[in-house]
Amino acid sequence: LKARRPSVLLARPPSPALRNSSGRDRQIMPASPRLRGSKRPHMDRGRPPQRVELHRVIPQGVAAAAVVAADLAASGAPLDCGGLHQIIEGCYLDETTPDETLLQWHILNGFGAELPAADLQLMLAETAGVVTRPKHGKRNSYVALLEAAPRWFGGFMDQADSRAATEAVIPVEAWQMAAALLLQGDWPICEKIQHERFCITAWLQRHDGVLATISFGRVLHVVHCVISSKTMLGKREGRLVPYPLSEEFEKQENARNLRPTGLRGGEDWVASWDDFTHYLTCLLLESSGTLSPSSLKRLFRARFQLELSETALGHTSMTSLMGDARFADAFRRTVKPGLSDEISLRSAPESRA
């Protein structure tokens, strides 16, 4: 089911220019050789805003808001409150939640640099017909919404838990093609990690005809669901990669084969449960009788010149390791809500239910 979207973008409504404390206009100039690659957009504080009429058919497989930002930059007009309003309208066409991160991605792609966060918030506050709201579940983040949503608007489709998206019909072929492409990888490296999911969504729409026929927001919904599943995409050095290339997959494989993870050349590690039990007992006897789980790796390294790698003992995390029955045979883990957990020796073996 295709998203309902007009074939053309209406001209943006006239709106007052953003003014600084001195009363002069604050604007972002469009992309130019001196702007491209700069750390922040050039500010032209003396030029009045220009109204740019944009009447353009939105091609399939391209986000409407991206077209707006690119056309604004190409027109030679500065990005003012009216232009920002139109980018937000484009997000409604795309069925994507216009939060701060998405707006900055469109501004970066169109004008070559992000708008400083404080300036973006101030510009949104001065934009007629737009209100900002805190983003649910995100601290210090917000969404910029139109005061009156268009009559044709059916809801934002991009979030993994979006009710509108779960009730919408996304073709099975779209899920299948997205899965196949994501497992292959090969998407371009995104300049900023926080924009990565948008870059991947745009890449998917460019590389598959089925994905190009549905809205940017619905494809982004698929990407969010895939990320949440943690079975098709993982992370390597903070960036999204196909799951077989991820650090999570590497840990699972190492744990299955009892291999250490993340060691440098020449480093030794705790290679067996008997060694782990012996060394941890020594540390507890030398201490006050309790230790924090978070300090174990540091103490093993300092006291025994050994690396404590969970995967060498068959686990992918310290939490999983401490849940092992062999750990409970010799040690006690005390959970203290709001405080660091403690590990201590068992005074005597206890039966487990």
TrEMBL record:
Region feature (Disordered): 1-48
InterPro entries per UniProt: OST-HTH/LOTUS_dom (IPR025605)
Record-annotated HTH OST-type domain positions: 272-349
Protein name as it appears in the record: HTH OST-type domain-containing protein
Organism: Alexandrium monilatum
